Amino acid sequence: xxxxxxxxxxxxxxxxxxxxxxxxxxxxxxxxxxxxxxxxxxxxxxxxxxxxxxxxxxxxxxxxxxxxxxxxxxxxxxxxxxxxxxxxxxxxxxxxxxxxxxxxxxxxxxxxxxxxxxxxxxxxxxxxxxxxxxxxxxxxxxxxxxxxxxxxxxxxxxxxxxxxxxxxxxxxxxxxxxxxxxxxxxxxxxxxxxxxxxxxxxxxxxxxxxxxxxxxxxxxxxxxxxxxxxxxxxxxxxxxxxxxxxxxxxx
Length: 251
Ligand SMILES: Nc1ncnc2c1ncn2[C@@H]1O[C@H](COP(=O)(O)OP(=O)(O)O)[C@@H](O)[C@H]1O
Ligand SMILES: [Mg+2]
Fold this sequence. Notes:
By secondary structure, the protein is of the alpha/beta class. The protein has two domains: about 1-60; about 90-250, Rossmann fold (3-Layer(aba) Sandwich). Helix content is about 55%, strand content about 10%. It has a five-stranded parallel beta sheet with strand order 2-3-4-1-5, sandwiched between helices. The site of adenosine-5'-diphosphate has 14 residues, from helix 4. Keywords: Plant defense. This is NB-ARC domain-containing protein. It comes from Kingdonia uniflora. InterPro entries: NB-ARC, P-loop_NTPase.
């Protein structure tokens, strides 16, 4: 009986070992195939990397990612030029904003807050180019802030537009001091369009003194937090919604 059982178990084990060996030989084949494939891929990668050097291409991934974000920024960048003047229903918003901007108070930040596409930049442009603003302020500047910005670049852009030609080799801290001094006795008007971060004005403001009474910063943002952070004591103007008649006119 025991002999029979042992011989049965040994027989089954033998079958299992044969099966395992069969399966393992299948796996070995597969592993061999994968190894060959990986060697082929490695050779291909080495060839591609060598061809970069042949064609003088360096850091291709990094370069393309940077230029892509730069191109996207360029495409979104705004400026104060009025290309079109067929705007409807802006008069009320312009009046409210102008009243706010003409107040002869200490330097303050006036914010236009509203969702994307509401007409904030359009309102900015209208006000920036308004005859009263052109006449009443000694110098004007418009910068596009967006999500990513560099303080030094922005300060150069602003200085230039205000009429102070800063030396490109100047240290950032010197630029801050020079710009402050330049603006000390001026009534200036600065637009910070499309501001996303509450830090933007915080890190820029060191370069902006109170100036002459009535100097203003006009900031546009989608975020009430950004606007509140910039100046909590101010009115926030959203471009007014169109009336029924104005909406038909727009269509
Ligand atoms: N009052 C208006 N009448 C007609 N078109 C307008 C008006 N306001 C804005 N637009 C148009 O709507 C689009 C979005 O306006 P924009 O000022 O860029 O919005 P935001 O800055 O709030 O994202 C632009 O093409 C602009 O010309
Ligand atoms: Mg805008």
